[in-house]
Write a structure and sequence with these properties.
Elements: H1 7-13, E1 18-21, E2 24-29, E3 32-41, E4 44-51, E5 56-63, H2 67-82, H3 90-102, H4 105-113, E6 126-128, E7 139-143, E8 147-154, E9 157-162, E10 170-175, E11 178-181, E12 192-197, E13 206-211, E14 226-231
């Protein structure tokens, strides 16, 4: 499946194509084929990179919130094989990322995703959702794979709380009448819509999720989750 070729890939790797197939991200780096994939969960970052034409590959495992560290390490190690004479070290790519952070948000998003994004000023304003706004949807929900989450009142509004992955939690916000969760420990491009519905055959309220940013990393595969309400919130 073709994927957008980002300006970062062009600048750093002289890449000409980018695609996804059978779980691998496929691209070219300095004229050499590359197959790679990353893993991201709150507090855990990983990457595996294969360079089959060079009979080389490596794995990165990080215990911590280290998205940029993974990006830099993966880049330096890849270049060690594809462009050994280049001699660009960790500091070079760290400074490149620092420059991106200093750029306007829309420019950074475009550099990461390869697609133009709307200016933040055009996004619906967000406000903390109240328990009264969510009265029909409050409760405990369960997805067969992800497990239990709760959407219940808190001292500051309403919180989305994950039982199995407690760091995947955050306040529920209202964006022009649609609700989303702003995760405490993830970057802003990981925000997720919370879409509620009634009318399932078993009469249970349902919850589905989707990426707020359509250009966000596809490893945030919220669309695979399908929650059903199982209980009410505990009394406060």
């Amino acid at each position: 499946m073709p994927m957008p070729l980002t300006s970062r890939m062009r600048d750093w790797n002289k890449s000409h194509f980018y695609a996804y197939g059978y779980g691998w991200r496929l691209s070219d780096v300095d004229g050499t084929a590359k197959a790679a994939h990353t893993g991201t969960l709150s507090g855990m970052y990983s990457a595996v990179t294969l360079l089959p034409e060079l009979d080389a590959g490596f794995v990165i495992l990080i215990n911590g919130e280290a998205g940029e560290a993974r990006t830099v390490l993966e880049q330096v190690l890849t270049k060690h094989f594809t462009a050994p004479g280049q001699k660009r070290a960790v500091a070079y790519y760290a400074e490149e990322l620092a420059g991106e952070r200093a750029a306007p948000e829309s420019t950074v998003a475009e550099k990461r995703s390869g697609a133009a994004v709307a200016d933040a000023s055009t996004s619906p304003p967000r406000s903390v959702a109240s328990a009264s706004e969510l009265a029909s949807w409050l409760g405990k929900y369960r997805d067969p794979w992800f497990g239990e989450v709760s959407i219940c009142p808190s001292d500051s509004g309403v919180r989305f709380e994950s039982v199995s992955s407690p760091r995947l939690s955050g306040p529920v916000l209202d964006a022009a009448g649609r609700f989303l969760v702003d995760f405490d420990t993830l970057e802003s491009d990981a925000d997720a819509w919370l879409d509620f519905a009634n009318g399932s055959p078993d009469g249970q309220t349902q919850l589905t999720m989707a990426k707020v940013d359509p250009n966000a990393d596809f490893s945030y595969d919220y669309e695979d989750l399908h929650f059903r309400r199982t209980d009410e919130c505990a009394s406060r």
